[in-house]
């Protein structure tokens, strides 16, 4: 048989035990750091989004519209003939090669959803003079 020896366990005073802080994970607790739980991170995110919403409403709340009517734009009516395209009509009316912006303007004036025009369609275009 083998002989076992028993070694006495050193006595630790209560003063030494109370001075050691241990986190629930078994690691020494860190001091001075803030750790957020998942719920805490969601609350911070929601608060930040709410703050952004409040700031955007406060800064964007002013209207730029006035009570006075603006000057009506002078327009001409153009009838679409065979082979005409919106780009071609805009190129005739546009000055300084700004055809793309003229196409956009004609679409807005006539409330068009696309650039497709039909034979015989009457379009309002800005007048040249």
TrEMBL record:
InterPro entries: LysM (IPR018392), LysM_dom_sf (IPR036779). The chain crosses the membrane at residues 42-65. Residues 76-125 form the LysM domain. The keyword Membrane applies. SUPFAM superfamilies: LysM domain. The keyword Membrane applies. It holds the Pfam family LysM. Keywords: Membrane, Transmembrane, Transmembrane helix. This is LysM peptidoglycan-binding domain-containing protein.
